[in-house]
Amino acid sequence: MARTQAADYDDRRRNILIQAANLFAEKGYARTSISELATACNASKSWLYHYYPSKEAILYDIMSYHVTELLECARDCRDEQGSPRDRFRELVRRFMSLYIEAGSQHVILLNDIGCLPEDKQKEIQELQDDVVAIVLELICEVNPALSGNKKFKKPVTMALMGMINWTYTWFDEKGPINEQQFADLAVDLFLNGLMSKEFKG
């Protein structure tokens, strides 16, 4: 007889992902053992394997959940009412909120995708490409002239993504500005340029 799933099966899997993300981000995926992960979950290795067949499967789910959240966020902002500038600003604000709330997952997505087999890498990359495509779509709504200039579409879009994606390397949520203030700063610099910005205390 097949084993019946516990009522909190999904919650337990989600907790495994959270604990694993924190460990992988802190120690590195390759340097984290299943034993260490089981300890972090206050469980045994056999208990862990009941929920995930391998460490690789855990890594894949961490990335999949995170990039899917980003994709859903991008779709929501694209489809909302409001001007292109307002929707674009809201997109960057929500991305920054996700980066702070799921900081470990974001670090792993950026740094450890190469630890997955090629077919799984491709699945994650396709989701990331969908996110970037929506960001480009919103940027082109803000400045329609970009729509007809294939040469600059990717560089412009990735310039914006570069401003916010790597904030985990330096941004301090307890620092002088919060993530929403930084998101607005990034949007202002991206849309209007440095010289248009007045910096006041």
UniProtKB/TrEMBL annotation:
Keywords: DNA-binding, Repressor, Transcription, Transcription regulation. InterPro entries: Homeodomain-like_sf, HTH-type_TetR-like_transc_reg, HTH_TetR, KstR2_TetR_C, Tet_transcr_reg_TetR-rel_C_sf. It comes from the Bacteria. Residues 10-70 form the HTH tetR-type domain. GO terms for molecular function: DNA-binding transcription factor activity; transcription cis-regulatory region binding. Residues 33-52 bind DNA. Gene3D superfamilies: Homeodomain-like, Tetracycline Repressor, domain 2. PANTHER family: HTH-TYPE TRANSCRIPTIONAL REGULATOR RUTR, HTH-TYPE TRANSCRIPTIONAL REPRESSOR KSTR2. This is TetR/AcrR family transcriptional regulator.
